Protein 1
Amino acid sequence: MVDEQGEMLGVMPTSEALAKAKEAEVDLVEISPKAKPPVCKTIDFGKFLYNEQKKEKAQKQNTKSHEIKGIRLSFRIGPGDMDRQRNKAAEFLQDQHPVRVQMVMRGREKAHKHLAVQKMKGFLESLKEFGIVEQSPKFSGFQIVSVLKPVSKNNN
């Protein structure tokens, strides 16, 4: 039997171990039942479960998945809006989120795909310090799509 502080109390019958746990107002928990003799520890089980839940919650926060963030551009986007979208994309990349950049083309814009690709490449080039082009611009229906992945923090 082991107490709350980790001190060995020695081998004793189960009834005596339960009596000691009840006297100390804690629970008797079997740690390794297959050992000869089985090892038990006196702990406050409610407090133990609470601490385990806190550890799991902290671990979940640390391993937060990096969801893909999206930026939408238009063919006729102005310089001010382009800067705003660039800053937003840079912010996402600094937070280690991959960014999908879409440029939607409507009507007569579809006839000038080469201009749209140039505009998209210029946008991606302006973000090269924050992210690496994972998927170069390619056509998907009436839009051009590209994906940037963040530069790893170790390289900065």
Note: The longest helix spans residues 45-62.
Protein 2
Amino acid sequence: MKDLSEIEFHLSINTTRGICSLLFQSGVQLKVKAGVSINNLLCKQLSLDKTYVDKSISIIFMNGQPVDDIDKVIIKNNDTLALSGAMPGLIGATLRRGSHLAPFRDTITFKEYRNDITQDYGLIHLKLFNFISQEVGPLLLQRGVMVDLEDVIDLFDDKMSEKINGHLDIYLDGKKAGLNELRVILKSGVKQKLIHLKVKIS
């Protein structure tokens, strides 16, 4: 089995957005400082504009439960955070942060407003949906994300072939490689369960 800690690929912004729609729906893992509010995570650590967070990220789920107050909900190691733009219909309106329909989902709303969690670095699972994946995903890929090995294999197989149209530079731990070489390495087995995936937008 081979050591393979990082894959960097160079793509156009449009192709990167296409990859994001595939990658972030399944979710990636990010190394972050846990024990802080969701608002702190998004605005301070991920450097998202506060106005964008307030106006565009309308629906937030923590461990499968909708969140209203991102200043009070504290994220901890191994939590799963899902971000989405507005969704249509009654369900979308009910799930929206601060919605006047929020009382109808009171039994499933996230209420664990903990403030006793020690701040320390850990991994969280992040999912992005609809246009949020297109707008936030490329920013995160340029920083680098951790992806499950099986998801990397899936991404660089048929799904990747449909998106790149032959225009792709790949670097395996800093050394340039071809797509077929990467596929062989991934399918022959690597030691890591998580692969650091990074994009350089060209």
Note: The chain has a mean pLDDT of 84.
Protein 3
Amino acid sequence: MIRGEREVIANIGKAAAAIEKATGAAVREAAMMVEREAKTNTPVDTGRLRGSIASEEKTPLLFEVGTNVEYAAFIEFGTSKMAAQPYLEPAVESARSKYPDLIKEGIRTEIS
């Protein structure tokens, strides 16, 4: 047996739990960013599409952001008669660029 082995193993377990918790918080924050920005960028006629955008936690490390409005894809991607007015993809790309920093900061906070 190596001296201090139990403490090292216990600390590794604590670090793994802290990293998982921080990553879950980062995923949640990124989903909220996507939801907020998508709502800000959504073109508005009646407000139905904007009001329907929501995030849903599928697992602690997986969120889904979207809408159940049937014409949402036509607005996002356009049609043969209407130009695309992307609101969701730009929001995802914006959050994607911030995601690594969210994770780093979360881990720093958790293990400090």
Note: Residues 22 and 109 are 8 Å apart (CA to CA).
